[in-house]
Amino acid sequence: MQQGKGVERRAVLKAAGASLAVTGLGATATACGGGSGSGDGTVTIRYAWWGAEDRAQRINKTIDLFEKKYPKIKVKTDFQPYTDFWKKFNTQASGGNPPDVFQNAVGFLRKYDAKNVLLDLHEQVKAGHLRMEGFRAGLEKFGEIDGKLLGVPVGSNSMALVIDKPVYARAGINPEMGWTWDDFDEAMARVRDRTGRAGDSGMYGVMYLYDLYLRQNGKAFFTEDGLGFTEGDLTRWWTKAEKGVRSGLFADPKKVAQIKPKSALSAELAGSEFTWDNFTVRYTSEGRSEYGLAPIPTTDGKRTGQYLGSLMLSASKRTQHPVEVAKFIDFMVHDPEVATIMGYDRGVPATTAQYEAYRPTDPVNKAIAAYEESLVKAGVLEPITPHPNGADICEAAFLRIGEELGLGKRSVGEAVEQFFNESKTALSS
Amino acid sequence: MGTAVTHAPATEARAKDPEPRHGPGTPPRPADLKRRGRRENLAGYLFMSPWIAGFLLLTAGPMAASLYFAFTDYNLFDAPRWIGLDNFSEMLGDPRWRHSVRVTLWYVAVGTPVKLLVALGVALLLAQKRRGQAFYRAAFYAPSLIGASVSVAIVWKAIFSDDAIVDRTQKVFGIDAGGWTGDPDLIIYSLVALTVWQFGAPMVIFLAGLKQVPRELYEAADVDGAGKLRQFWKITLPMISPVLFFNVLLETIHSFQIFSSAYIVGGGAGGNACGPADGSMVYTCYLYVQGFENSRMGLASAMAWMLLVAVALVTAVLFWSQKRWVHYEEGGR
């Protein structure tokens, strides 16, 4: 150590300082591709989706089934929660290494088509590897955007008010088709007063719900290339929200933030939550209560503004195995046994073969079937408009800024301004 | 880590007297020396080549690329489009960016001094001769080894969330603030607590510095009747000021780079990356959001370079300031 003293202290410090400063950089992603074929003709495809643990278990069972039927195709899986899924997908796709086949939704079709990521499946349909017949309710058209087949629906779902049934029973509320927003406000107050629980988990940040409200009033969240509402519209929506949070009608956003990724409903912070009707499957496995479905409140006592949403399977353009991927998608949407495993986890099955193969026997899935039927009967379903490129960023900003409003970090005016600024950037890029 | 003070004359003396490095025997002729020197240089570079390759491919290359991207609109998919300084002007006009700068500066300005104070305080206690000091040293040092890991951040999140240990302890004292991780104003304190908890690393450096302070100085001060406090201000602090400077520099730069703990405590899987209402949105978190959530790699690169420049400036100011408060003992020892 005596020798070591000869080293200039300042020099060491400077070197240390400089090298540390340099490490301040670096946000460059690298991803590397890998081959996926092997000598004996066995092919491996990668399949990714978003969802929670219970969905993963079901999907793994369907994959076992698939691999048994197609022993030459192996499927490697990967899943994350919704937001993380898209971050990972985006990074992989930009690095030229996206999964071969993945779960998709309408908000992402245009976006990733513009980025040249999605495979047009029409060719595989023509070659007979993928059947596009036998879909319910015109669903085969849902993945067709700008003349390309970018996704194949696995199920359909629609927005609903998912309720904690015992809580609603205790509050003495029984919402019926056609109930209005005034009825809804009254119900929220009753849940709060009679059960001591907030009525709703935070509806003001749910883009898909605000979309319905706008549709009831002849507008929509998105037009073909921008936002379909004004700052005045949003100011009204969020002013009401702010009051609701303050008065305890909506769950304390502080608490909601902390129980993520669990939902506020299954964590018993709120009596109900606006989300997709198939979420009762997840909440039933996540929470301790019984969960049911109530209709979307209306403005005029009739129109809910609803449309069928759909989860899809898409293939990536860069896949080395388009044929195998097409066969995989075909199997997943048509095979009756897959339907009995999946239930309504991703919505009501898209094809009639699967729809008929699975007759729900448990109350949760039965309720989903009944709810979807009631929508058809009431004739409230409308066609959906494909979302513009950037819609997903607007959706995330809507949720985040709504949360900031709920937490009291922004006034309504500031929140509206911020949302419009961020959306403008997102939709123009 | 020798911490005692050294001084330039020592080096000069050595420079005048080049030490023969090639073992005993007759000194070789100059020509031989030259050839051998070149061969040794080559060998040296060869031995360094893995590092050089790594540096060029993994550090210098990406850095150069990111410098270029900083002036482009680049979404990872389409070719980057040159837009000059637009990224920088957009940044400055973006309230969320300004918010992230505020959060980061606050974190650096509070977390670093508190951490160093704790480190110095504990080092002073551990520098005394007591039984079992080696054990305490190891125990206090341990958190800094694991503190930066994701698993600790997850534990931290659990400790500071609703109805967890911190919340319940507060309630015993009648403070009902709820969990810190759900509160946009409190969450940053849990991050400060996390960094302070890792005071072990600077503490060890302080300890080494304290050991090097000559005992005679304290003895002389005792004779002159200086109290403990005065001894600290007049002897200990000046004598360890180079070490203090090193720690301040290191910890400040570290603090500017905080990411994984903020990302995990602030959200992690399934949440937003930056805490409730961006409460823990430090600079690098926003950089991540722009780069990976919004696919704006050009903007994210520009942000990275802004951070580099800011950290370099802060480092420069610190180096400039050391003239006023850092004492390098003349003459070495």
UniProtKB/TrEMBL annotation, chain A:
UniProt protein name: Lipoprotein
Coiled-coil regions, chain positions: none
Alphabetical keyword list: Lipoprotein
PANTHER family the UniProt entry points to: ABC TRANSPORTER SUBSTRATE-BINDING PROTEIN, ARABINOSE-BINDING PROTEIN-RELATED
Pfam families from the UniProt entry: SBP_bac_1
From TrEMBL, chain B:
Transmembrane residue ranges: 42-71, 105-126, 138-159, 186-210, 302-320
Comp. bias intervals (Basic and acidic residues): 13-22
InterPro entries referenced in this protein's UniProt entry, alphabetically: ABC_transporter_permease, MetI-like, MetI-like_sf
Superkingdom field: Bacteria
Zinc as UniProt keyword: no
Localisation per UniProt entry: Cell membrane
Alphabetic keyword roster: Cell membrane, Membrane, Transmembrane, Transmembrane helix, Transport
Region (Disordered): 1-34
Membrane topology reported for the UniProt record: Multi-pass membrane protein
UniProt cross-references to CDD domains, sorted A to Z: TM_PBP2 (cd06261)
Domain ABC transmembrane type-1: from-to ranges: 101-318
Primary localization: membrane
Entry's family note: Belongs to the binding-protein-dependent transport system permease family.
Name listed for the protein in its UniProt record: ABC transporter permease
Naturally occurring in which organism (per UniProt): Streptomyces variabilis
